[in-house]
Amino acid sequence: MPDSAEIAASDLRTIGLFGALSDEVLAFLAGMLTVVKPTIGETIFREGDEANAMYVVLGGEMEVTKKSRGAVDARVAVLGPGDWFGEMSIVDIQPRSATVRALAPGRLIRITAADLDALYRHDVRSYAIIVLNLARELSRRLRVADGILADLIANVMDSYLAKRPAAG
């Protein structure tokens, strides 16, 4: 899956994760990061796997699934160019929380904790910007999940109350 294909700074410039970084830092990252080219149906990682990297989608489409209590794979997201996934492994160093596989041939940037450490040593301000961008996206996703959960609870409660016999 890893490829030696180079990444151009221009590939990074349009991705929110790298927003507000200088051309010099984008060139530094482009020279350091690895490109991965998954094929259709290829699994990038599985829920429960040891985590050691995150990925940014340059091209293709990735499906994110999570196992329910009943062991049913539920699709939780479809990601495309500019999106990223696996960032929780950079933040909390826990096993993978979901499975990601390619729905179409893709081109991904792989970013490891060691890559971020190298950026920290190169330019701490740019490192801080990337960490803030990660935190903003995690916060946005949490807000979306909170909204979905609130709607689900309200729907379940409405259904439950509608089925209860009237007090009398």
Describe the structure in your own words:
With 168 residues, this protein is α+β, with helices and mostly antiparallel strands. The chain has a single domain (2-163), classed as Jelly Rolls, CATH 2.60.120.10. The protein has helices at 9-13, 23-32, 88-92, 113-122, 124-163, and strands at 2-3, 34-36, 43-45, 53-59, 62-67, 73-79, 84-85, 99-102, 107-112. It has a five-stranded antiparallel sheet. A four-stranded antiparallel sheet has the order 3-8-5-6, with no helix packed on it. α4 (113-122) packs across α5 (124-163). The longest helix has 40 residues, at 124-163.
Q: Tell me, what's the shape? A: elongated
Radius of gyration: 19 Å
Q: By CATH's scheme, which homologous superfamily applies? A: Jelly Rolls
Q: Which percent range describes the beta-strand content?
A: 15-25%
CATH architectural label: Sandwich
Profile the largest sheet: 5 strands, antiparallel
Number of structural domains = 1
Q: Give helix % range.
A: 40-55%
Q: Structural class of the helices, strands and pairings?
A: alpha+beta
Q: What multimeric state do the chains show?
A: single chain
Q: What is the overall pLDDT average? A: 90
Q: Could you please say which CATH topology applies here?
A: Jelly Rolls
Give me a quick take on this structure.
By secondary structure, the protein is an alpha+beta fold.
Which key terms come to mind for this protein?
five-stranded antiparallel β-sheet, elongated, 5 helices, 42% helix, four-stranded antiparallel β-sheet, 168 residues, Jelly Rolls, 24% strand, alpha+beta
